[in-house]
Amino acid sequence: MDRFGLFSECLLTGVWIAVAALPLLTFPAAFAAGTRHLRRHLAGEQGGLREFIADVRAAAPGGLLVGVSVWAAAALLWLDLSAVRAGLPGGPVVGAVGILALIGYMVAVLRAAACWEPGDSWRSLLAAAGRRTVRDPAGSLLLVCGMAVVVLSGALVLPLAVPVVGAVAAAATAVEARRLAR
Description:
Layout: H1 3-20, H2 27-42, H3 49-85, H4 91-115, H5 122-135, H6 137-156, H7 158-181
Helix pairs in contact: 1-2, 1-7, 2-3, 2-4, 2-7, 3-4, 4-5, 4-7, 6-7
């Protein structure tokens, strides 16, 4: 496998994911389509923008609900942190638990999206991904670090965060492939 070709495919996939995720609620579907595209690329199968768009459309019905749940969890965390800043007794502990819970949920969403195939139920994918998030701390930490790289890249040079999303998709694909290889 041409490593530079794989790297460039990851960057291109990151751009596709970012464009498909512009409505914000479509991020899980876009990420699922991106990881599926990378799996096809690694398997040597044909696939391009047309297949990616078809996958986004196929993943969107359940993926939109997952996207709404991510934003709802983020809103709850914001309320939680607002209460912490207001001086709630035990606030720092409650805030830390809320932040860790949101990070864990995001990792589960990424892991679920990395396993998505057309026709899969997002509910069952998330349930299985939640178990894997806890049982595979090394893979989960890799995805947390990947998300941190996207955030830091965006903080330093905003356009850089777009292709880096493809690297996180590649990391999620690798984490799930490693699990299947065991």
